[in-house]
Amino acid sequence: LDKFRDLLTLMMSTLTETLNYGNEAAASEALELLIELAGTEPRFLKRQIVEVVGTML
């Protein structure tokens, strides 16, 4: 499950950057991929939820 840690960091950075630049289509795609990751590896995301929520606030 740790193999996804770097991926999550990159996904959250991408999501933040796309929203900051107003690129809603890319942000939506990044969010869809994050949702897919959550469905595939829910145990991983559960351990990283603080990072995910912190990034979104």
What share of the residues lie within helices?
over 70%
Helix and strand composition category: mainly alpha
Shape assignment: globular
Strand content: under 5%
Number of helices: 3
InterPro entries: ARM-like
Structure description:
The protein contains three helices and no strands. With 57 residues, the protein is mainly alpha-helical. The protein has one domain. 4% of the residues are buried. The model has no long low-confidence stretch (mean pLDDT 83).
In short:
The chain is mostly helical and 57 residues long. It contains 3 helices and no strands. The chain has one domain (2-56).
Question: What keywords describe this structure?
Answer:
57 residues, mainly alpha, ARM-like
